């Protein structure tokens, strides 16, 4: 169990990383919650003590599920109230969202198990599909694309109140989409499309994204 005391010195909250088996992580998380609740009673701290879990944005869409079904089910099954920090708070340096669970020690601990089960599942699926894609596109250098930081060999995500996890790479969300406009020299378009559109089709499939090229407004645009 690592308490990140030095990072964000002076901040009201410190994150705690728990590294263990899923069962060990959940047991430690529950113990920490119990200690925090006891401490709150001792010092007569009246505010509610939620459990906060930090999760990489790549996994959050699947945790929420279509129309929020997965999250609602976890809330109902564990009798907790769960909220997730908005997308707007994400930055390049902090790709994590905060999952806040409100309830008593028992219900929060139960919710942590369910949330982390879902996140681990997403993580494992992404690793599997990443390995599959490496075989499907021979000669594709994943590192050169910059999609997979050198941390992709990290152990699966961990959790705690709150926890941090190391993302394997920026996977594309299923439920939240955005459009990005890239401007490139007209001369480079052919290289991106490739012979009979093969290159752009592979990129589309690989990224799980739809890529469209706008017609050039002028020959040198």
TrEMBL record:
Single GO MF descriptor: RNA binding
InterPro entries the record matches: KH_dom, KH_dom_type_1, KH_dom_type_1_sf, KH_sf_prok-type
Keywords, comma-separated and alphabetical: Repeat, RNA-binding
Superkingdom field: Eukaryota
Domain K Homology residue range list: 47-120, 176-219
Pfam families listed in its UniProt record: KH_1 (PF00013)
Annotated protein name in UniProt: Insulin-like growth factor 2 mRNA binding protein 3
